[in-house]
Amino acid sequence: MPYKSKIKKAESNKKWEQKNKQWRSAYEKKWREKNREKYLAQRKKSYQENREERGKKARDYYYAVRQPDRRNNPKKYKEIDRLWAQKRREKFRALFLELKREMGGRCSQCGYNKHLVVLHFHHVINKLANVSELKSFKKIREEAKKCILLCPNCHMELTFVK
What is the mean pLDDT of the chain? Predict the structure, then answer.
């Protein structure tokens, strides 16, 4: 039966959705599995088209919900932020150790290899920033490729003593 107005059609569709929610979700899940590539392409296109709108919604949500909650519960969020920062520092430490192992795990001048933590990154090619000051794992890896490993003594001799 054709609808006389778009409003009545929308109301009818909404009622049908509520009644058939489980059936609809199972159907959609099967469709996504069957048409995986098409689904991912649609998702990517939608993501790119609605990027600004999503960003605005996220900012609005933050200012309406999260920020007031942070102000009202400073002790709770102080602890959450502390734990988050601790996990992040641990990831960075692990990344630096991994990079040092990949680079040979020894001073390139004297051969020191007792403790990886002690070794420094020394730039040989054009330096954009100190490796330890970067925040992105990708940028850290790129910058470390421009470096050699040196022990603190060799690093001081090479850098400061002339």
Answer: 91
Helices (H), ranges, the chain = 6-19, 21-34, 36-49, 51-61, 67-72, 74-102, 137-144, 152-159
Report d(CA 105, CA 147) in Å as an integer.
13
Work out the burial of residue 131: count CB atoms within 10 Å of its CB; fewer than 13 is exposed, 13-18 middle, 19 or more buried.
buried
CA within 13 Å, CB half, 40 = 4
Report the percentage of the chain scoring pLDDT > 70: 99
pLDDT of residue 13: 87
CA-wise closest residue to 139 among 125, 150, 129, 149: 129
- What are all long-range contacts of 46-54, with beta carbons under 8 Å and residues at least 24 apart? none
Q: In Å, what is the CA distance from 52 to each residue of 57, 59, 61, 67, 118?
A: 9, 11, 14, 21, 45
Distance of CA 159 to the CA centre of its chain: 34
Confidence of residue 1 (pLDDT cuts 50, 70, 90): low
What per-residue confidence (pLDDT) applies to 106?
93
- Going from the C-alpha of 143 to that of each of 59, 119, 147, the distances in angstroms are 32, 16, 7
